[in-house]
Amino acid sequence: MIQWAGLSLLFIYRCQVVDFRKHLEKEICAKAKQFAELPENIILVDRMREIAAGTSCPVGDIPAYVFRVRDYRIVYSLEEHPQHDGSIRLLKHMSVSMPKLTEKEEYAFLEMICEYMGFDDDDGMKCYLEDLGDRAALNMVQKYKG
Q1: Cα–Cα distance between 54 and 46 in angstroms, integer?
Q2: Among candidates 25, 43, 33, which has minimal Cα distance to 146?
Q3: CA-CA distances (angstroms) from residue 47 to 82, 90, 92, 120, 144?
Q4: What is the pLDDT along the chain (146 residues), one digit of tens a residue?
Q5: Which domain holds residue 65?
């Protein structure tokens, strides 16, 4: 095996592939985030009410809001949610469908995606996990700051 400064060329190649993959993943997330945050793509409160009533399809069924990174299906949207006091709050919502959470790598991946999509666990982020049988969906909701 060829050595360079104590490192094998195979090791250097693997590091470059990992860095390139992370760069591509970051770009995919940035494009999805940019799309969802365009004013014309915000899910307005009337549409949210239709979704809740079952008269409109969920955001995850609209291909433009769905993207894939590795084996994960991710949906990101900005949504107007009615509040108990009658006001409307703009929230960002991300759902990540994945194999069951068992590996440390999956937790690290989720942290990375949250960072790329602008979620901050110190700022009122709410998370809930849905059991989908052999898979799980992690949902995150947080006030959108623009």
Answers
A1: 12
A2: 33
A3: 11, 13, 15, 26, 18
A4: 444 445 554 554 455 545 667 778 888 899 999 999 999 999 999 999 999 999 999 999 999 999 988 888 999 999 999 888 988 999 999 999 887 666 666 777 888 888 889 888 777 788 888 887 888 888 999 999 87
A5: 3-143
Task: Please enumerate, as own/partner, the contacts of 14-17 that have beta carbons within 8 Å and a separation of 24 or more.
Answer: none
Among left, alpha and beta (phi > 0; psi -120 to 50; other), residue 20 is alpha
Q: Which amino acid is at 43?
A: I
Q: Give the angle subtended at the CA of 141 by the CAs of 72 and 124, to the nearest 5°.
A: 130
The total domain count for the chain is: 1
Neighbours of 60 (CB within 10 A): 16
Whether the full predicted model's pTM is greater than 0.85, yes or no, is no
